[in-house]
Amino acid sequence: MTRKIVHIDMDAFYASVELRENPQLRGLPVVVAWESIRSVIVAASYEARKYGLRSAMSVRRARQLCPHAIYIAPNFTLYRDVSRQVRAIFMQYTDRIEPLSLDEAYLDVTVNHKGIASATEVARRIQQEIFQQTSLTASAGVAPNKFLAKIASDWNKPNGICVIPPSKVLAFLQDLPLEKIPGVGRVTLAKFHRLNMKTIADLRQRSQWELTYHFGRHGHRLYELARGIDMREVDGNQPSQQVSTETTFDRDLPYIQLQEPLDAIATKLWEQVLRKRKFGRTVTLKLKTASFRIVTRSQTYSSPMYSVDDIRQAAAMLLERVEADKRHTLYRLVGLGVSTFAEVDEVDAQMSLL
Questions:
Q1: pLDDT band at 274 (very low <50, low <70, confident <90, very high)
Q2: CATH number, domain containing residue 191
Q3: Model confidence at 275, in pLDDT bands (50, 70, 90)?
Q4: Which of 143, 198, 254, 257 is the most buried (most CB within 10 A)?
Q5: What are the tens digits of pLDDT across the range 294-344?
C-alpha cells in the first residue's frame, strides 16, 4: 500500500503566537529574541522576513537590516501549551505522529480514525481545525513519504498546501535545487557545486557508486532521494538523544571566569532533566571561542546524574580538561548536555529513594 504522509508546519510559529497575544503588533516587523546584541533570532514574523531577518540570525545583524523591528522575549511555556493543542488535533485523525519540534510533525494518515480516503482532505481539515482552535495558520505537505512531504509543506507558505501524488514525484523533483533536500547544509551544498551538481536532475545522473565515493554512507541515501525513495516510517517513539542548554555571553569571557556561568547552566539543565525525566550518564561540555571555534569535552559515568550537584561536578571536571591557552583565549558561549539515558524502571526506582 502506498503510504499517505502529511507534514504539518506551523507558519512562523513563535512569532505568530506572539502576534495573536499582541494583535496591535500585526503588520509590524516582530522578532522573537532576547534583545542582547549577542543573542540570535528565535523567530521572525513575515513582515520582518521582508527585511531579510530569519531564525538563527544574530540580533546585531538584524538591527542593521531592520532598526525598527520590535523585539519580544521568547515564552516557551506558552509555545508548548499551543503545541499541545495542535498535537491534540492531530490525534483526532491518527496515532501515528512523529513530532520534529514544537511547530512541525509528520502524520501517517494512510489509515486514519475518521476513515477519510483522501490525505489531502485530512490535511485541509487539520489546517481548518488548527485555525479555529488557535487562530494560527499551518502549511501542509502531502506525499507518499516523509522526504517529499517535508519539502511540500514549505512550497506554498503561509497557510498553503502542496500535494505530490506518486505519479508526479519524479517530475516534481526534476528541477528542485539541491539545497531543498532536508539536511543539506552549506558544506554539502558547496561539495555538490564543486561536482557540478545543482539540481535533483543532476544528482540523478550520478551512479550509486559515485555518490558513495564522494559522500560516504550518505551517498546511498542521496541516490534514493534523487528518485523520490524514502522508506522511513512515521515513528512517534524516537527517543531524545540529548537534553542540553547553552548561553551566549553579553561579552567574551576569559577561561578563569567560566565557572560561574557554567554553574548557572548546570542549574538550567537540571530543571530540564527533571521536567523531561531524562537522567543521563554522559555529560558534554560545549564552548565557543571568540573566533567561533567549537570546543567540546565529554565523559560517560557508570551511573546517571541524579542531582544538580552531580552535573555541576561533572561540568567542572570537563572544564579542567580544556587545553586552550587559558591566559589569552576568550569565550562567547558555554553549553552543557546530558545523554545516554537511564531506563524508565531504573529512574523510577532511583527517584523513589531520593
A1: confident
A2: 1.10.150.20
A3: confident
A4: 143
A5: 889 988 887 788 888 889 999 999 998 887 666 678 999 999 999 888 765
Which of these, 20, 232, 206, 225, lies nearest to 106 by C-alpha position? 232
Q: Which residues are catalytic?
A: 104
- Cell 583565549 locates to 329
Given a cut of 80, is residue 159 above it in pLDDT? yes
Range of the domain at 153: 5-11+77-169
**Within this chain, do residues 218 and 161 fall inside the same structural domain, yes or no?**
no
Number of domains present in the structure of the chain? 4
Domain membership of residue 230 (yes or no) is: no
Q: What is the pLDDT of residue 353?
A: 44
Distance CA 283, CA 311 (A): 7
Report the alpha-carbon distance of residue 350 to residue 219 in Å, rounded: 44
Give which of 133, 130, 96 is closest to 6, Cα–Cα.
96
- Strand pairing partners for 43? 32
Give the percent of the chain with pLDDT over 90: 60
End position of a domain, from candidates 45, 75, 105: 75
Q: How confident is the model at residue 238 (pLDDT cuts 50, 70, 90)?
A: low
Q: Cell digits for 261?
A: 556561568
The residue to which cell 560561574 is assigned: 260
235 domain residue, yes or no: no
Claim to verify: residue 211 and residue 133 sit in the same structural domain: no
The predicted pLDDT at position 345 comes to: 47
- Judge if 19 and 88 occupy the same domain: no
In a domain, 55, yes or no: yes
User: Do the strands 70-72 and 30-32 form a parallel or antiparallel pair, or are they unpaired?
Assistant: parallel
Q: What is the CATH number of the domain that holds 253?
A: 3.30.1490.100
Q: What's 32's domain CATH number?
A: 3.40.1170.60
Report the predicted TM-score, pTM, of the whole model to 2 decimal places.
0.72
Q: What is the 3-state secondary structure (H, E, C) of 302-338?
A: CCCCCCHHHHHHHHHHHHHCCCCCCCCCEEEEEEEEE
Angle of CA points 260, 291, 329, to nearest 5°: 50
Q: Which residues contact 349 (CB under 8 A, 6 or more apart)?
A: none
Residue whose cell numbers read 550537584: 309
Quote the mean pLDDT of the chain. Answer: 88
